[in-house]
Specification:
This is YgjP-like metallopeptidase domain-containing protein. Pfam families: YgjP-like. With about 200 residues, this protein is an alpha/beta fold. Helix content is about 40%, strand content about 20%. The chain has two domains: about 60 residues, no CATH class; about 120 residues, Metalloproteases ("zincins"), catalytic domain (Zincin-like), CATH 3.30.2010. A four-stranded mixed beta sheet has the order 1-2-4-3, covered by helices on one side. A four-stranded mixed beta sheet has the order 5-7-6-8. Strand 3 and strand 4 form a beta hairpin. The N terminus is likely disordered.
């Protein structure tokens, strides 16, 4: 039995194929040609131009669900994988001094790549990073690990990241990727980092 979504502001619930995910369709008068989809609150939001017919909407919902499924198949590193990766990076680049209590993926970070809460040692990475090159994910993980040692973005912080040979390249990649996505979707680009 298909599950229905509660309409969000500007959103219309749609039945999902197989009934395993709630889909909300958001129409926008400002959106002219682009269609985007992302995960939110356990469901999927598909953003389409307001002028789309019901048939176009149905077609694009199917396309975007297929794209998300394909992307999920390519990119799924679990939380355990992230924790292991963080431990290796901390050992290699930070002399094992950064020891997070948890490292996990989160769906609710649409405006930043990662965040750290130094008080409890937790690190969260946006699921938007999934599917990006491993060296980019490693940079964001290392960035967040460094915040367990240095809370701000001063000289001491950047000195810690200097050991990672792809720091500048990864920062450039993330900046370019987020700028391109923002231009394509009209959504704000994620920031490199935010500290709690």
């Amino acid at each position: 039995m298909p599950s229905a979504a509660t309409p969000a502001a500007g959103g219309t619930p749609a039945a999902a194929p197989g009934g395993d995910v709630a889909v909300r369709v958001r129409r926008s008068d400002r959106r002219r040609r682009t269609v985007t989809a992302y995960r939110e609150d356990g469901g999927v939001v598909v953003c389409i131009p307001a002028r789309f017919t019901a048939a176009e909407e149905a077609e694009w919902v199917q396309r975007m669900l297929a794209r998300l499924a394909a992307r999920d198949g390519r990119r799924r590193l679990g939380d355990d994988d992230l924790e292991q990766r963080a431990a290796r990076l901390a050992e290699r680049y930070l002399d094992g001094r950064a020891r997070p209590t948890s490292v996990r993926w989160v769906d609710n970070q649409r405006s930043r790549w990662g965040s750290t809460t130094p008080a409890d040692g937790s690190i969260r990475l946006s699921t938007q990073l999934q599917g990006l090159p491993a060296w980019v994910v490693d940079y964001v993980l290392l960035h967040e690990l460094a915040h367990l040692l240095v809370p701000g973005h001063g000289e001491d912080f950047w000195a810690l990241l200097a050991a990672y040979p792809r720091s500048e390249r990864a920062r450039g990649f993330l900046e370019g990727w987020s700028t391109a996505e923002a231009a394509r979707t009209g959504a704000p680009a994620p920031a490199e980092d935010a500290d709690d």
